[in-house]
Amino acid sequence: MEFPGLLDRFLTYVKIDTRSDENSGTFPSTITQLDFALMLKQELSGIGLSDATVNEHGYVFATLKSNQKEQPPVVALIAHLDTSPEVSGDGVNPLVHRDYDGGDILLSQDTGAILRVEESPDLKDKIGNTIITTDGTTLLGADDKAGVAEIISAIRYLTDHPELPRPHIRILFTPDEELGHGTEKLTIGEIAADIGYTVDGGTAGEIEDETFCADMVNIRVCGINVHPGKAKGKMVNAIKIASEILERFPKDSLSPETTEGQEGYIHPHFISGTVEEANITVLIRDFKEEGLKEKESFILSVVVEARGRHPKATIFFDIEKSYRNMKVVLDNYPDVIEKAEEAIRLSGLSPVRTAIRGGTDGARLSFMGLPTPNLFTGGHNFHSRHEWIALEDMEKATEVIVRLMGLWASAGPRKAAGVVS
Predict the structure, then answer these.
(1) Domain range summary for the chain, segments of one domain joined by +
(2) Are 6-211+326-409 and 213-323 in the same CATH fold?
(3) Are 407 and 343 within 8 A, CB to CB?
(4) In the CATH hierarchy, which top-level class contains the domain 6-211+326-409?
(5) What are phi and psi for residue 168, nearest 5 degrees?
(6) pTM for this structure?
(7) Measured between alpha carbons, how far is 404 from 382 in angstroms, rounded to an integer?
(8) Domain 213-323 is of which CATH architecture?
């Protein structure tokens, strides 16, 4: 299969700065996401999807109707509009490196930024490919502009080849996924599908059916501020107390920088403060809910100790629930995974079922009633100035989508709304 518009589509998308903003009070959190949504609506309408819309919350919806006599299950294809706010997405300058020779890639003569094979060993498998990077000053935005481009390219291919069998396909692009809010203003009724696939993964061939369980712990330390010249016996410094709490956290374990695979972590994510008040946000991750509770109990014990040492301070502890491991739901829908694996095989790749050390919109959607595993995009080094992707892997991701739709078209008639055949 050939997808001649895929590269240009992707290069156009990544130049649009759609970083989300965790300090925003709007939804979507940035106006550029809405601009991008409206652009995608026009593109989908141009392909021939007459019902393409953008709602007041910035969600993009569209439908490619089935060409089957009997209605198979309705499949949703999902990607997100925003890019990570942790790295600049302003002025993305995508560089296309054709016929990659297997060596380190110089990203910028001016800054000396280099994409090193030693740090990105998957490059070793891409000799002869077309590699897309940035100039080392911004992220690329393949997370998830690659997913958006692959879905639209697959839909374009299916409309250009009406002889290929397909189910009823619902397209959904969500805002603010990077903030964990991608499904916040969304209902299952709006999606109107029986199953879903997010196209938001990494290495070619992977299908992710498992995510972290996630919570957020908020700690607020209220001290007492007094003029420093007359503070003896009176001042209670909230900054120092917050520092003591963080000092008690493990240094050589239970952190993102010291864990991998199925290991969870405690991650101080944000801190701010004055003498009078200090705030700490801690991200808690584990593949099992019991693991979350253990880590939260540990942090609470640290807070209780701090309360004992500083009786004049007031220290608040609050747990904010985020998402849970979607495998709990997906294990009840084996066909959803098996068909994805078969589509990957039909595309000439070996399927690899893996877990996400993170989350996707699919985690929440699965618990909302829409079983939604995650398909690969081909991207690497997400949220980084060294982010890269191979065009050939994007083409494979697009082919997988097309073949997957064919498999669902032949799955037989849907049994009932929300029930997979």
Answers:
(1) 6-211+326-409, 213-323
(2) no
(3) yes
(4) alpha beta
(5) -70, 125
(6) 0.88
(7) 25
(8) 2-Layer Sandwich (3.30)
Question: Is 320 known to be catalytic?
Answer: no
- pLDDT tens, position by position, for the chain (421 residues)? 999 999 999 999 999 999 999 899 999 999 999 999 999 999 999 999 999 999 999 999 999 999 999 889 999 999 999 999 999 999 999 999 999 999 999 999 888 999 999 999 999 999 999 999 999 999 999 999 999 999 999 999 999 999 999 999 999 999 999 998 999 999 999 999 999 999 999 999 999 999 999 999 999 999 999 999 999 999 999 999 999 999 999 999 999 999 999 999 999 999 999 999 999 999 999 999 999 999 999 999 999 999 999 999 999 999 999 889 999 999 999 999 999 999 999 999 999 999 988 888 999 999 999 999 999 999 999 999 999 999 999 999 999 999 999 999 998 776 644 445 4
In the block, tokens 């290929």 appear at 164
Radius of gyration of the chain (CA): 23
**Residue of 17, 21, 43, 82 marked catalytic:** 82
Count of residues making up the chain: 421
Active-site residue, 177 included? yes
Residue type, 50: S
Among residues 177, 178, 210, 399, which one is catalytic? 177
